[in-house]
Amino acid sequence: MVMIRNIPFRPAPNITLYRALYSYLREAILSGKLPSAMKLPSSRSLAEELNLSRNTVLNAYRQLLTEGYLHSKQGSGTFVTQVLPDSLLVTARITVASTDGQKRKGPIQPILSHRAKAQVTASQQTPGRKLCRPFYADTPALDAFPYKLWSRLVIRQARQMNARNFAYQDSAGYRPLCEAIAAHITITRQVHCTADQVLIVSGAQAALDLAARMLVNDGESVWMEDPGYLGARGAFLGSGAHIVPVPIDGKGLVVSVGVQRAPKARLVYVTPSHQFPLGVTMPISRRLELLDWAKCTNAYILEDDYDSEFRFAERPLATIQSLDNADRVIYIGTFSKVLFPSIRIGYLILPSPLIASFLKVRRLIDTHSPMLEQLVLTEFINEGHYVRHLRRMRTLYAERRSVLLDATHNLPLEIYSPEAGIHCVGWLPDEIDEAELMEKAVKYDLGLTPISRFSLRPLRRRGLLLGYGGYSAQEIRNGARRLGALLSSL
């Protein structure tokens, strides 16, 4: 056992000697056993005294110098600093506590921007929710995803990555993935685009946020489907937009009402292929009406095609983008609903005049999306796995939809379930108290989402989203039984 000024140095066996010496000296300084302004032995002398290598001592000294416990004078040596960093921290904490303690009790409240406060209020996502609880509407069939295949592709691509893959990448995204996306949606969704128009982002939410930043000024009006997607509402609030709720009828967003409420709106957000949350499809006549308005007013249309791949009985209608000849439509797609939510890969199809500006701003936000996931997804698409997975999912979701319709047949619900997507709507009887229903749902182990959550104005009817995509046939039947018991209890 060796000592400095009678302080024993006992290095622990489970840490490096450098860390042990650093901790030994730091504790001695803080305890006052090595007083302020005291000159320490030279690194060579201390190494000899403690029977350590000189590099070990030098590393410990450097760490203490960096953290402010020591200071050095050229030609004079190394000294314990007079004002320790820990003392500064304690003094700061005492000052804050004494100042604030007189003014308020409880934790310090964060100071948020007005836009952030609006977004916090609009966001109603519950963290840590129980995913296996029916009937959450945004859960795809994670039990049917080809994990082993995906894992093999991840391993293969990780092994093949080279130095270029670890450098900064093109903000537009991995070029082969842009080409694969453009080729796929040109065939399946009749989108008119080239790979140059594809911008890869971190999911549809990132696409909405970027579009809102780029196209909306403070106070400008944005048409929003009502009821409509909360993520879009949050993005528009973050851009300082004035959100104009436009009602949904059996043909989707009612353009005439939008024109009446905000004829010079800057932007309109729509989910025309499978409106979220009500599930209706916008016919060609309404799409053309919307396009005509956008052309006349020089407004943009954000077309969110979030789950159009899942249509069971017939091919979906052509996208609004495919009908656009005036560069008014920005098309948004995502792989979160089709594959799995944590992949966080989505994309925008941009009109050519917007590409350069969007890329410049995107570089300021997060530069580009992670490379490995893009490499794997590219191979997943190009080898045909993506199309095969879509085919399997359409069959599976059609089966689960049939199970849900059969299981809820005798419940006091009016079910609206188009042959598309991964959820349907259950309209409630007028006498049901929605607040009481939601309060009791947790006790029945049900994950219910009221339609009113997505609405800016009061709805004429109350209803529930009933997701079936992420649940097995047995889970759906069991959930329907519990839902029946819950409704009976009301």
Outline the structure in words.
The chain is α/β, with parallel strands linked by helices and 490 residues long. The protein has three domains: 2-85, Orthogonal Bundle (Arc Repressor Mutant, subunit A); 120-127 and 155-383, 3-Layer(aba) Sandwich (Aspartate Aminotransferase, domain 2), CATH 3.40.640.10; 388-489, Alpha-Beta Complex (Aspartate Aminotransferase, domain 1). Helices cover 43% and strands 14% of the residues. The chain has 17 helices and 16 strands. The protein has helices at residues 17-31, 43-50, 54-67, 85-101, 114-122, 147-160, 175-188, 203-215, 230-238, 255-261, 284-297, 320-323, 355-365, 371-382, 385-407, 434-441, 473-489; strands at residues 2-4, 7-9, 70-73, 77-80, 198-201, 221-226, 242-249, 252-253, 267-270, 300-304, 329-334, 346-349, 414-416, 423-427, 449-450, 463-467. The chain has an eight-stranded mixed sheet, with helices on both faces. The chain has a four-stranded antiparallel sheet with strand order 13-14-16-15, with no helix packed on it. A two-stranded antiparallel sheet has the order 1-2. A hairpin with a 6-residue loop joins β13 (414-416) and β14. α1 crosses α3. It is elongated, with a radius of gyration of 30 Å. The protein starts with a strand and ends with a helix. 38% of the residues are buried. The mean pLDDT is 90.
